[in-house]
Hints:
magnesium ion transmembrane transporter activity (chains A, B), transmembrane helix (chains A, B), 66% helix, 6 strands, mainly alpha, MgtE N-terminal fold, cell membrane (chains A, B), magnesium (chains A, B), 23 helices, 6% strand, metal ion binding (chains A, B), Tetracycline Repressor, domain 2, 3 domains
Amino acid sequence: MSLDLERNELLERILNGTDEEVSKLVEDLHPVDILDLLHDNQEEFLEVLKKLPDWLIADIVDEEKDEEKYEILKKFSEAKQKKILEEMSSDELTDLVGALDEEESKNILKNMNAEDREDVRQLLTYKPDTAGGIMAKEFLAISENQTIEETLKYLQKEAPEAETAYYIYVVDDNEILKGVVSLRDIVSSKFSTKIADITHENVISVPYDMDQEEVAQKFTKYGFLTMPVVDEDNIILGIITIDDIVDIMQEETTEDIHRLGGLDEEEKVNGSLKDSIKSRLPWLIVNLVTAILAASVVGIFEGTISQVVTLATFMPIVAGMGGNAGTQSLTIVVRGIALGELTGENAKRVFLKELLVGLTTGIVIGAIIAVLGYIWESNVIFGIVIGVAMILNMLVATMSGFIVPVILKKLKVDPALASAVFVTTVTDVLGFFFFLGLATVFLQYLI
Amino acid sequence: MSLDLERNELLERILNGTDEEVSKLVEDLHPVDILDLLHDNQEEFLEVLKKLPDWLIADIVDEEKDEEKYEILKKFSEAKQKKILEEMSSDELTDLVGALDEEESKNILKNMNAEDREDVRQLLTYKPDTAGGIMAKEFLAISENQTIEETLKYLQKEAPEAETAYYIYVVDDNEILKGVVSLRDIVSSKFSTKIADITHENVISVPYDMDQEEVAQKFTKYGFLTMPVVDEDNIILGIITIDDIVDIMQEETTEDIHRLGGLDEEEKVNGSLKDSIKSRLPWLIVNLVTAILAASVVGIFEGTISQVVTLATFMPIVAGMGGNAGTQSLTIVVRGIALGELTGENAKRVFLKELLVGLTTGIVIGAIIAVLGYIWESNVIFGIVIGVAMILNMLVATMSGFIVPVILKKLKVDPALASAVFVTTVTDVLGFFFFLGLATVFLQYLI
């Protein structure tokens, strides 16, 4: 659908075409598709790239991963680099420079025009994960006294350079944000209409220091395409567009999913063996330490186990069920925090609910396992011991599944990070302790 | 920022204002905010709602959860319902009707105008999770012979009703999709320019039966705001907009995260106790069965454990580490499938990598635990037994972390579903079997 031409034919035509033919050919292709083509044909990478117009090279650089962007740019002369940089918007330039070391970023900044350089320097002062760090400076702003016709003429000149032309911000002489008009409203209005008549005054903006995850939540909640970023005085600093937000949402959820699964947030399914091992081994070693901790608890009770060896058989059930119940609570709480659904207001209620879930499911699972234990060992006390241990462990599991991520959040650590390790450690250590401890207390009835 | 007025004051002003005052007041408020206000003031819900203009009630119905939409609508007379329905777009109406039983949907369809009713009937024929099921019929289409000025006049009439005015599709007389022009290109062009001169011919579209998750991947890849949906003959059927995609992405990732965590996909952190128990208990019972399976393996070896009781102490380490390694592989593979990064082409390479990750990390962790086992029991063979068992278990863990979701995907079952249960079962059962089996074989050297 996206590429009507066969890829090889496309490659041939780019390599053998005149500049004009290539310009015409690539006009309707998406830079992402061309970047894919380049990656699939590494030998012809540079040769193809050199045939492309500057604006397209700029788009391709932007679509490339941050750490690879400069690798593409470096292949060109300084003069050509200047032309390519000219075609990039301020947030794209900031992403590019942000990934470089001091030496390289100096080189790049030197090749920008003065205005872009100033914009990038300013954007680099914001934290990368905040509204300021992801916004672009290329927004459209007009005064409310203009007419639709004047605005359309202004757009004919300015829209091609803007990050988005679909929302135009209405500002006063001091750049203070007064409202917004949509391009849809503009084209739906008569040429003589005044901007003031179609301005929406209650414009929803975000402060420059808002965390990007919170910005993404606002976009999702309101279904916006664009949001303006303002400072303390409501002066408009830049805009954020939905396409950047979609990328951020995907990044943030991948990060959460990876952290819950005990992986580095940047590991890729199609990455290298070395990267995978670097991502996983540290977590496995942390887990080894916690597993040894759990094992030591069992070690304390070796005397009991040697007398009632069936305890060893039931150990995996107690630990496993606690781990599962803990993971359930943890998952719902971590996702609730990420979606902004778990707030200060409802935290108490959610905690109470988790406690009751632990108690209820603990009683059900505990009753089943008690009956099973009784049948297996033909001993009522054995059944009661494992049943009670199960209830206690599932209660602890849901509690820690709630408490651990909430504490991490308070400490401003990502709740998904390390939560799983802490929760499993708690359920393993306490699970074995309850089970084997109770068995030791009632040992005389078990032998 | 979003609501300058205090909420209580806003409520007062809506309740006591004249129709005109209220119209003016709510014009710049976002329907999401008004819906929040209504939910926070249940007693005044209906009274406030009745003061609002029809278009805003329509927006509020659309923002409400699917199963609650009709509850709002029902509060009004048939005549008023007709007016509200008139203000809703075809995809919104389809969401509304799709959530109702036959009786209720008949009532709603009866109150729509003929065109909307026809649109909704048609949209309901597509599967809800496909491109056809999420598209809207209100798109803008023009012929390539028009000028910019003619197009602007067409937009002044049609844009207010359209789902988006930012992309206008160029079609021939048979509604076959020929290209696309952006509103930005239109406003950046001279009034006399022909549409043909600014048409992008290589428009990327999606077939009506494409799964919504794949549609979302395309949006993310290309950074689009809108995509057209076509049939087999490339006739344009409707459009999908990014704001719907953002909601779908969030739904789909929540679903994946929940399933990986052993939860029902629809459980909410702020939901009821009953819903939580209904979501979790079935999974816990499935897990109980698999835990009993693992326990039975241990049960087989009770004789061995009774002779070397330290085996019981080391059991949690072997099982726990296998579970962790399996979860890591599972997480990266499930996320890779969801992001479209694990494909038929690279599956073999990824499998080989997972195998090598299992082997490498297994050797590292196995070596550590072998030394520890040797020190604990002062017995080299004990160290070797647990070390080798660890290597085998971690190898099996990464393998099953890859194979289980890939098989589920082939069977067209969501890979996130049940994967965790299968993988933990495999690592628990085989982990205990390797460890206790090897110990039994070498029992004479361990006593």
